[in-house]
Amino acid sequence: MIDPTLPLCDLHRHLDGNVRLETILDLGRQHGLPLPAATVADLRPHVQVTEPRPGVMAFIDKFQWMIGILADYDACYRVALENVEDAGREGLDYVELRFSPWFMADPHGLDPAGVVEAVVAGVTAGARDEGIKVNLIGILSRTYGPDIAWQELDALLRCRDRLVAVDLAGDEARWPGELFVAHLQRAREQGLGVTIHAGELAGPASVWQAVRHLGATRIGHGVRALEDPALLEYLAEHGIGIESCLTSNVQTSTVPDYASHPLRAFLERGLLATINTDDPGISGIDLRHEYKVAAPAAGLTAAHIQQAQRNALAVAFLSADERQSLTESHPTRGGHP
Questions:
Q1: Contacts of 289 (CB under 8 A, 6+ apart)
Q2: pLDDT at 268 over 60
Q3: Cα–Cα distances in angstroms (integers) from residue 142 to residues 111, 180, 183, 262, in the given order
Q4: C-alpha to C-alpha distance for 195 and 197, rounded to whole angstroms
Q5: Which of 7, 11, 314, 334 would be 93's cystine partner, CB 3.0–4.6 Å?
Q6: Which member of 82, 200, 243, 290 is catalytic?
Q7: How large is the average pLDDT for residues 99-117?
């Protein structure tokens, strides 16, 4: 059960994995782009996961229709704006939207720096109109390799003052974190927080590497950390946040089913684990679904769920003053039924 006295926060949500189906159709028509369907109903199975996929990269294939319609910077602005509108309509109090400017720029040869500027502008407008607190996390996509990651980081740092953190995402198995140590060091030197996708495609060694060498204070997914008791103890002792994404992990076959997910074990071992959506447009879910359907299916009690909600506020990339302000302003937004 969602605690109505606490802010509702989503800390792991990919902006480029949350594009409205109607927007895909509209932008496809506007730019004369080939699409697999002409109606929302017919498009849905091409974009959303309807059954578990054999691995994370197969899941990522679903992104092609979401980023494929980003033909210009206005499209990037629109998608960013609509992400904030959707978060507001879900009743979220705070959301951290993450995005890879190279991933978004690549299909139509856009300038990644221009993508960053468009996303920042769209999020800023949406947050103003919706009255919701939004922060941005810039992704370095492993999948393009270390050289492109430098260019991606340069693009992100053009708007450094509008970001709170950087992330390393993509093909964790083929592009290990050790290739990106210098990138993350530079980001930290710029005062940015660090969250790393780890322990999803690769094992506990990937999580160790993220916290010891990349400077991660939060881990995206981290499912396989459960395999190493010493790692669990370290994560709990050092207050490393875990961004759990229940439905996504089932859909990518990272875990076989909700009941097998380690989130309950993380919480019971004192880890600062949280509940998030990952790519709600691809998964066909929202954060309330994760709290009300996925979490109970994963064996979480009401106490577990409320602890995860408190953890999200604790590990969010917010200053102490921002955290207090968010908590104090929360009741004015009507709580969470």
A1: 247
A2: yes
A3: 18, 8, 11, 25
A4: 7
A5: 7
A6: 200
A7: 97
